[in-house]
Amino acid sequence: MASILMSAMPFAGHVAPVAAVARELVRRGHDVRVHTGSAYATTFADAGATPVPWRHARDFDERDLAATFPRLRDRKGARQMIANVQALFLGTAAGQCADLHDEFRRRPWDLVAADSLALGARFAAELSRRPRVALSVVPLAIPDRDAPPPFLGLDPLPGPVGRLRDAALWGALEVATTPLRRAYGRARRDAGLGPTPERLDEVWLGGDDVVASGVPALDRRESWPGLARFVGDIAWEPGGAVSPRPARLPDWWHDVRTAEVPVVHVTQGTYNVDPHDLILPSVEALAGRDVLTVVGLAPRTPPLPGPLPANARVATMLPYDELLPRTAVVVTNGGWGGVLAALRHGVPLVVAGGDLDKPEIAARVQRAGAGVNLRTGTPTARQVRDGVGQVLTHGRYAAAAARIGADLRAAGGAPAAADAIERHLP
């Protein structure tokens, strides 16, 4: 039995894959502690791990970030991305490290296996001189100067024009991220560490190994020899835990089980939850169509205005392991966990990726042939209707989703991630 320290940024999309790996490591007999925000302490306790709460780190509620970080209020697009990185990931890193320094002095660990965006765990691994495995629970973003910067949702452009474009974009990124580089330097100093020669875009994936969610078909490159190990959908536990099932299924669930028309699932994730962005345009787009529209709401999504179309069904929590095998198309804002879950079931997608990493995810889905990229986070009803119609009409999307689904399942999920972690145990 080894003592393993894990860490997860307190967001639902980060917690689910880390919890799956923690549960697998506990099942194998390891002593697992997980550093995370207070909102998810019970999640990890239920997985059999020991929660290590954020104390020095400034805890926050992902449902209301502006309550803790007022400068994040009403930000969108690139401004939101930069503000989020500075406040949430860099701004809390030294506090995370202080928490973990206290925990290591109380009881040392053998290895750190952490969410790659939890920089405090990286700092703690450096200070404790223990091996570190980075879990890339968001799309792998290894810097590649022969391509555009990641998370812009841009396709590679060959030839001199492409090289000029990419050089200009990387130069603009260097200027735009100057405050972030300074914040990273301050975080290291506050954690008791010296400067590092790494560029800012390299620090997220340092360590002894990178365990990446996804498969090569969904990456910017087909492989990263010696740099990363793809394990598919990290949150997937074959033969083990399934997605949470509501205590009571919706009264209309029989309609899903017996549907003789295509089921279209619509989800806007758990972060930006204004239903006017995607849910309401999708409901309007599919009204009167020969489909069953099944809408999944986040817990804090405002109630939808009624009356709803006759072919629409809405619930706050849906059992994905029962829904996705019956689904023909998923309309999504592009959250990585939801995209991987849909593709693992072989379901093609229509992606409306507007903020953060979602434009990049939408572009990857389209490049892989497994869906349509609407190129906006606030599509019109017509754009959604055309996207769904395209996927339902052309079988190539379902065929590509089925191929990627087979790759995701073969990659192994949480057990494969646990295997990779165990390789670095002393």
TrEMBL record:
<feature type="domain" description="Erythromycin biosynthesis protein CIII-like C-terminal">
    <location>
        <begin position="290"/>
        <end position="410"/>
    </location>
</feature>
<dbReference type="InterPro" id="IPR010610">
    <property type="entry name" value="EryCIII-like_C"/>
</dbReference>
<protein>
    <submittedName>
        <fullName>Glycosyltransferase</fullName>
    </submittedName>
</protein>
<dbReference type="Pfam" id="PF06722">
    <property type="entry name" value="EryCIII-like_C"/>
</dbReference>
<dbReference type="InterPro" id="IPR002213">
    <property type="entry name" value="UDP_glucos_trans"/>
</dbReference>
<dbReference type="InterPro" id="IPR050426">
    <property type="entry name" value="Glycosyltransferase_28"/>
</dbReference>
